[in-house]
Predict the structure.
Amino acid sequence: MSRRMSKTGRDRLETAIYATISVVSVLVFWHVFSVHMLKNEFILPSPMQVIGGLERLTLGYLGGNLLYHTGSSLLIVITGYLIGLGIGIPLGIMMAWHEPVNRIIGPVVAVLRPIPTPAWIPLAILWFGIGMSGKVFVIILSAMVPCIFNSFTAIRETPRELLDAARTMGAGKRTLLFEVAIPSGLPTIVAGMRIALGNAWATIVAAELVAASAGLGFLILAGYRNFEAPVMAAGIISIAIVGLIMNFAFQWFESRITPWRESEER
């Protein structure tokens, strides 16, 4: 046990070292290229100029500070994401478990799947305006589709031997679904939730670039319109940082809901 823990500790230390080297190398190259080679602040501001842009956003920019604009984006993402999960996961499970549901809804989902979510943004603006409702609508679509397909796949790929073993012990259809199929397919369902979260975060930025009065995408577009490249870059960096935090938070959630996967990886 101690050997396994020590190996895990070494792996994490090595990962942290490599990550630090990678980030520092990028920053050094970025500084040298922008300051000593390109010498054009508007095309590529230096890291120090971006820090200045972050400071400006923190103090307040176009009606709110960085925390306000980040909160505005997160509120829409979380609302649409949770609604998308609430629709997509049960719907995918029902489609996999009840063939009539799949025959009715499957063709509609198959048509929706190839449509990039940003393509819905102009229609969402037409239907709901530039307020919160239209953005929540496109977030729901971006989160719902991967949840449907992953949940469908998770249930359909339940090992036959598990179902047969449960039937021999007298399990009914409800028990087979909730105590065999769903627990067996949980890792695939959670993977769909992770894809949905990434889609949702990318979609809100795209939506705010088109029409918004607040949010991180709005900051990037405002920086572009005002010829303030450091503000644009600071907005992009903020998006990356928030996305990274969300990814770590989801990894923690995944380790709690499917702890056996972490044991298998070790």
